[in-house]
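Thread: Modeling a multi-component assembly for a lab meeting

Hi all, long-time lurker, first post. My supervisor asked me to bring a structural picture of a complex we are working on to next week's group meeting, and I have zero experience with this. I have the sequence lines for every component (893 residues in total). Could someone generate the structure of the whole assembly? Inputs are pasted exactly as I received them:
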Amino acid sequence: MADNADHIDGDDNEDVRAQQNLIKIKLKSSEGGIYECGLTAAKMSDLVKNMVESLGTDAVVTTEPIILGNEAVTDAALKKIIEWVEFHWDDPPVDHDFEDEKDRRNEELSHWDKQFIDVDDQALLFDVIAAANYMDIKGLVEVGAKHICSKIRGKSCQEVREMLKITNDFTAEEEDAIHKENAWIYAKD
Amino acid sequence: MAQEVKHLKTELETTDDGEDVDEDNRQPQIYAKNSMDRFGDDLSQLLLSYLSLEDRFQCECVSKQFQRTVFVSVVDITLSDRFIQRLLNEKRSDTEMLATFAIKCSNIQTIDCRGITKDYEKRVPEVLGLLRDYCRRLRDIYCDWSYEMLATFGPLVTQIDAIICFNGSKAFNYCHRLSQLRIHSFNDIFDIRNDRSRVKNIRKFELISHSYYHNRRWPSFVAANQSIESLTVTSRTFRDEESVREMCGQLSRLTQLRELTLGLPLRSMVAVNPAVVSDSLRTIGVNCKQLKRLALNLCATTVQVLSLDSLSVFRRLKWLRLEVYAAIDDQLLEPLRHCKRLTQLGLKLNKMTPKVMTDLHQYCPRLHYLFIHDFNNIIDTECLSHISRLPALQTLVIECNADNDMAHEVKHLKTSLETTDDGEDVDEDNRQPQIYAKNSMDRFGDDLCQLLLSNLSLEDRFQCECVSKQFQRTVFESVVNITLSDRFIQRLLIEKRSDTEMLAIIAIKCPNIQTIDCRGITKDYEKRVPEVLGILRQYCRHLRDIYCNLDANSRQMMATFGPLVTRIDAINSYKYSKAVTHCHRLSQLRIHSFDKIFDILYDTFFVKNIRKFELISQSYDDDRRWPLFVAANQSIESLAVKSCYFRDEESVREMCGQLSRLTQLRQLTLELTLRSNGQNPAVVTDFLRIIGRNCKQFKRLSLN
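Re: Modeling a multi-component assembly
Sure thing. I ran the full set together rather than chain by chain. Output:
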């Protein structure tokens, strides 16, 4: 919001956003599925936002769907992503003057987000995260990151590997050396 | 599964060490969809950036990608005693571990060492020095005051929290990048020789205890710190209205101000003119155009109504918090109609009435967030209906005084508003209530859960505390009465240690205890009762009633806990019965004979105004004491007198006559022993008649 424009009002802006979300645009997954999404919600993705702005809103609404070519944007992942943005599009904007980045990072996920991101199918979870990253939806990537970090917390390396299906590419010697370096972590008080 | 993935990779003919890239091979490496290996380094780094420092080290050796990416996002670190203790082994002066740490986390920009205590502060320069050598991007150090620190690391220090030593303020000269500062008074930062501020160009400033006689320093400070964006000033006193105006006049010169917290205690000023506050605020509002956040804390003893008209000039205000201890009128918030951008409002007004809220939805239609401290139980249905008209409200927080019965009621109200479970926030436009499985106890809100669990015994409560967070929150809420027993004390206070930690934990968990019954404690443990009560009293702010017996060692206990004692069951030692005089709230008493509570020296009773009284054995002598007792205890509602022996009819009549003076009596239990020799049974009938006539409230009678 421009600082010296007194007439721009947060609330009018909100009305515009609500109005705009009634406009539906189409998003096409890499698998070919086409899904509708509110315009304001879709614009939470910086990728979509840039496309809409360069093409012009009218063009987007009337013509072809926006193609999301990344292989992570599967039908299932796109459906999840649309669910998330449609829930979050009216979140109050971040006030950079006051809200501390650090505090936000440490904030626990909301109950809704927790339920949303807690998917049993890890392939889908990773699709959603990778797709959100591709579509540049910062809030959703953050949700995914917090979720994964909460799963890693307190687990041993081997447990993390098994859980996240990570290949161990260290030799035993390398691993020992790291453990030795990090011995202080395991020190008893 | 790891094996399976390996297998997969082999099948796909990829090279697994990531080193050899086959130029012809255009196809990128294909990883299993459900393996985190599929992410590139940048995304991996982003995802891992939410780990704590410890977790990062713990999972460094998960894979080479982890090793590459897990430390990249370590940008801020907070030093603690424990950190230093672990990394710098005390006995060796070995800094190798710390150096390894610094090499791994070479992107550190900010180090916060304000949490270091005296024990380790000596080692801070050493740690910082080493980190500075390896972390080329280090820009900010937050610390407490220390001359040595500032002299060495001054140019890096951007935040200082507390100044403990006054004579070293010269060191500020080293901190030319300082941007945040918190001090007690201007003395801490002024050069006494030329009366100039040693700090300049700071952005965030907190002055915790300002006095009006430092007002003369404002001009120089403001001139040197035009850059201030966030300011907190809490004053101690003001001499007169002029000193308030003077300070606010200076503050209004800070044109970059975005956030202002102002504490104005006008209590000390006799007959303050309420206009002074409004005028001073107007000066600030007119000049500080950027101001978006304002918090005001006002106290005034004036009877005149405080007006905040001038809030209307704060056109850009987004966030307002008012804490006012003074007379206000119902139109207090009316000026806010001019603050079109206001989205957050906090109210802590001790004289607030529901009327203050009446037109709030017209004044502040954009309000997202509303906080109200409910001083006088004013949040009722009407008030909530005013609030519910706020069209944009998303969060409502109502804070109740802890001893407020209203808290319960509001909780109830909230439930009816279909709120989510975190208790504080009422989401007005709650579109999607949380859905829990029908057969899961999670579906219940905290209030219902608390109610359900309130039937558990104390032990069971502790046993199931860790069932869930909701259990933990709610299971102890309803612990209001506890009964101390020998076993309880024995388990909690281990005899040999004088360790009271366990008991303190119980007391912290059950802060709602109101009543403690320690009548069941036997001689073996009675010595420890005062200790137990002391700890419970310290943590349980609602403690109102103690039930106990009076023993030989009670004299000291009564001196301390007497005012809390409301029920005494047995006075076992005549010698110390005087201790009862400490119990001025005593309402229930059971004794063997009047001797225990009669002061023979002054011919008076130790107790008065009790409500329930039981006398186990009444003797002939007691006849003459009844008038005194009755006079001092007109409040008795329930009376039991057992084993009454009488000399003659006259004494029966006399006692009954006295009893009939207890007009508040609702319940009476009498065991009369009438000797058959010459006593007239009619005496009983007469007696009942008198009582019936005088004690109109009478409801229950048992006669033996």
